[in-house]
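=== RUN LOG ===
request id: a7f3
mode: sequence -> structure
chains: 1
length: 66
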Amino acid sequence: MNELEKLAERIEGLSPEDLKKFRDWFAEFDAKLWDAQIAADAKAGKLDRLVSDALADYETGKTREL
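=== RESULT ===
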C-alpha cells in the first residue's frame, strides 16, 4: 500500500467532526499553495501577457462593469 492509499484509508476512517476539520484545513492549505504559485508566476512574468490583454480590452471598451 503506497502513502496515498494509506492516507485515503485514514481519511475514510475519520469521524464526521474530524472530517470537517480536515476539509477546512485542506481548503486553507490548498489556497495557500495556489496563492504562492500565482505570486511566483507573477514575479516570473508568466502573467504579463494576460494583464496586457486585459488592459487592452479595458481600454478599447470590451469590458463591462461587474
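=== NOTES ===
Residues 15-59 form one domain.
The mean pLDDT is 97.
=== END ===
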